[in-house]
Amino acid sequence: MKKILLVDGNSLLFRAYYASAYAGPILKTSNGIPTNAIYSFANMLTSLISDRDYFDVKVAFDKSKKTFRHDKLENYKAGRSATPEDLIPQFQIVREFLDSANISWWEKENYEADDLIGTMSKIIENHCEDFEVEILTSDKDMFQLITDKTKILLPKTGTSNLELFGTNELLEKWEVAPANVVDLKGLMGDPSDNLKGVEGVGEKTAIKLLKEYKTVEGIYENIESITGKLKEKLINGKESAFLCKEIATINCEVEIEDLKFEPINVNLNGLINFLEKYEMISLVKRLSSRVGIINKFEANLPKEKTLYKQLEKWNNEYASEINFVYVESIEENYHKGEILGIAISNEKGFFYLNKFKNDNELQNFFSELNFKKATYDIKKTATLLKNNNIDFNYDSFVYDAMVASYVLNPNITSRIQNLVNIIETELFIEEDEMIYGKGAKQNKEIEVSTKADFIISKLEMLKTTYKPILNKLKEENQFDLYEKIELPLVKVLFEMEQKGILIDKLELDKQTARTLSLIEELEEKMRIILQDQISYDFNFSSPKQIKELLFDQIGLPSNKKQSTDREALEKIVHLHPVVQLLLEHRKLNKLYSTYLRGFEKFIFKDNKVHTIFNQTLTNTGRLSSSEPNIQNISVKDELQKEARKIFISNNDTTFYSFDYSQIELRVLAQLGEEDTLLDIFKNDRDVHAEAARKIFDLGQEDVITSDQRRIAKVFNFGIIYGLSDFGLSNDLKISIQEAKKFIEDYYNSFPKLMMYKNNLVNEATVKGYAETYANRRRIVNELTSTNFLVKNFGNRIAVNMPIQGTAADILKVAMVDIFEQFKNNNLNSFMVAQIHDEIIFEIFENEEKLANEIIEECMKNAFKKLAVMVGKTADEIVIKLEVNKSKGNNWFELK
Hints:
The chain has about 900 residues and is of the alpha/beta class. Helices cover about 50% and strands about 10% of the residues. In addition to polymerase activity, this DNA polymerase exhibits 5'-3' exonuclease activity. 5'-3' exonuclease acting preferentially on double-stranded DNA.
């Protein structure tokens, strides 16, 4: 059977836009034409043509916003967000792309893409015996078109990871046949299309009804056999049910002129001209690497391959003063990584080593300080070398492309392939999964030549972008941030990861057993309350089953999305006793699965966890951790806090925690030059109590109640995180009018804050990015959005980034300074963790006094040192930084 691909153009283009819009800056040509959605669309479509061997491809678009469905329901699709401004011009460009590639596309006044695709699929089914159809769409309405000859290709994440839906897959998902998808939509509605359905009837109830009565018509023919509230809901919603079914039904009888199915014949020259016009050179490279595409294009795309020498053993005759090194490993946790190959390049050429054990010359190369090395991710590279018994001198690593590119644009995901998004280059690296496969099909045992070519391509990218990246850092005034803060921090984090944190396995086992027992007790309580409303195999951890239980069976009120997140459940907790138990169950389950049982797989033979401190993950410059995440263990929740007991110090050391006090508020006072706040901190007064005096107009002799202080605290931190009258009224359980008055009084008390916030938003809007005191930048595309909510989010980023990012920079400066001071004073004490504004150390008893002095001095002076590092003066920093400390033999004792 030959396959024809029918593509829902609008659906795919929207998905392509949103998949890429927040992964980094909006891709634009040098003339400012946005191309991010086109790029993803073109990449996905050409991949499919290559990988799935289609006979023909047709793309359908919506031609106009009004269709025949609006005649039946005036507010059809009303309420959808406005199309992002950056996407609007790309609708025309995508048609240009298809024309240039000789891929046919269709649109028709008064109809949607669904109707054109539905009609085409039926024509193929009825008139083309040797053909079958795959429909690429993210619109689940298309499920009604599934037959033995037609399947749906549904993108699961972004525009990749496709799932093929036939009749069996649909039955498994919705328990209905394709013909009944419209009945399902008629009953449960579809908020994205503004279809109400029958109010109070959700997915589970709708499926149950259709299993028994087959169709909407069948339900109403047998309405007298249905009882209770459900009958009442169905009677009240009858008109809506039939209307929604009618509107959800795809018209498969649209007149389509000149429709022919012919072997796909992509126009190579036209495609290349298009890609060059819109500056998508890396996509040309990507296409050239796909053999299937090349064959279909009769391709003569550039295929120059970097020449390299494959060595059995390294020889230092090949070494140079500066060497580019790439060590390949594909494990997510590089502490457990296996080296698959090593590539080295310098002025003498490119070299590849597939075998490296017992290579003394290679050991000498990595150990020699005079052989400087540039790589991508020093921390990972050094860990892989260490774990594979290859000696090295850490200080010979002088450049980290991952960290440098993160400084230039933290919005772009840290992968060596993404260096093309930092520096314009015609180089292209295929995705790892194209070489090694992914998931269960991942395979390291591939042909040596294929693997070597791939690793060399990564090395070439590293080498080619080296000077342009350093030049760009200098041009953007970010070189000091990279060289003096981020690069030295890599070594600090490497040492922290190597030291690891000791785990008390007995305590872990005890807490795991206790938490499991509490979960089982809770489940038993809920089963008693719910009785026959749930089956014996009901899963209390399934959001889907919980949603059906609460909103379909019990009938509790819900929002449009029928959310079961914590916030949604807290709003209805008073309406049914099981809701509170569900909240407790979720909390215990997270503790069990994430921090107790979940921790066991991360414990190494040394009884320690060696977490990965992610230096290039957040947009603000803050550190995060993974494998395992040690930063998310709450100290506010008593049960979660207990989990901190499993982290214990070594026999001859004690844990010390040093925590910045209200660092973000102090940064706000400094950067905003807010005199009243500065004075509060200068004189060591309680900032929340003082804010309460201002808001509530109290004198110094008046007693501040705990409630007043709490309200003031909400304000103080709300300024940083985007305080709104609606949010404040929600938090404080007061009216929006009262909230507005409180906010007005607060800004009157601290008059320079509003001016500072407005300046930050205005600057970020003009520049396109927000920046910290140390010139760390975050691109804020959201500020140009016409969507109120998106733009509002951009405003919050513009205010939050300079404050939170500067606080993160201060912490990093302190960590680097402490690390160096410990080394200079020959201390054996060491840093083990960094959590938010806190640094945790293991300190030897005989070093306690000096270590404490060093830590406190470095942390208190970090803002002034930061100023000097980035070419400013220490004198301009007038705010005092305060540090709290505590000690203990486990983390529980630290707070």
